[in-house]
Amino acid sequence: MVLNKIKKRNLITHTNPESIISEQFRTIRTNIQFINGDKKSNKLLITSPGKEEGKSTTAANIAVSMAQQGEKVLLIDGNLRNPSIHSTFETLNVSGLTDVLMGEAIFEEAVYSSKIENLDILTSGAISSNPAELLASQMMKQLLQKVSPLYETILIDSPSVLEVTDPKIIANLCDGVVLVVRQDKTNIENAFESKKVLEYAKAQIVGVILNEKT
């Protein structure tokens, strides 16, 4: 397991790639690559114990950092309850993951080619009344099977582990999980409880990222 410290916030790897924080994200990127090694494991879930701990911002910056290195990356907003990836990248959220899972769009129609080279984005799509059921559906498994050969890395942002069941469902479909905690917000009990919950879901925790208070 790898532990990294970062400060927040926004898409700093794109707006200020020479900053110290951007370098920290490059370190995280490299550590993830070392952990994967030669294994064909390219689906990673980014989650946190609770709300407002920086997981979505972290997921976005790791995705940008990987794309900057020349990797073909897909960032999926798997938070079907309170999505934010579309706001981070300043794009619309008209068609996305929910539309694909409900059979109302195909992946090629819903995926968004970001202004950052090598980085594609699949937003959440419309807010769903049954997100857990959609994520646990055969369509979700088929989608990940379809896109996995197309990208070197697939990052999935999800709701918080201790908030809803969605992250456990997604984690079971991924090759690894990165847990984001925040120095001034996450208590140690919630961090350990999240670890237990993910392990019970048979998820492999490959790293922990500590957000520092600014």
The amount of helix comes to: 25-40%
Q: What is the number of beta strands?
A: 8
> Which fold name is given in CATH as the topology?
Rossmann fold
Task: Specify Rg, calculated over alpha carbons.
Answer: 16 Å
Average pLDDT level: 86
Would you identify the regions where 5 or more consecutive residues have pLDDT less than 50?
Answer: 1-9
- The CATH class is Alpha Beta
Total count of helical runs of at least 4 residues? 10
Q: How many domains comprise the coordinates? A: 1
Q: Describe the global form.
A: globular
H/E series, N to C?
A: EHHEHEHHHEEHHEHEHE
- Tell me the span between the first and last alpha carbons: 25 Å
Structural class: alpha/beta
Keywords: ATP-binding, Kinase, Nucleotide-binding, Transferase, Tyrosine-protein kinase
Organism: Bacillus aerolatus
Family: Belongs to the CpsD/CapB family.
Domain AAA: 54-182
Q: Would you kindly provide a written description of the structure presented here, covering whatever features stand out?
A:
- This protein has 214 residues and is an alpha/beta fold.
- The chain has one domain (42-211): Rossmann fold (3-Layer(aba) Sandwich), CATH 3.40.50.
- 38% of the residues lie in helices and 20% in strands.
- It has helices spanning 12-15, 20-36, 55-68, 85-88, 97-101, 107-110, 131-135, 138-147, 166-171, 188-200, and strands spanning 2-7, 43-47, 73-77, 112-113, 119-122, 153-157, 176-182, 205-212.
- An 8-stranded mixed beta sheet has the order 1-8-7-2-6-3-5-4, with helices on both faces.
- A hairpin with a 5-residue loop joins β4 and β5.
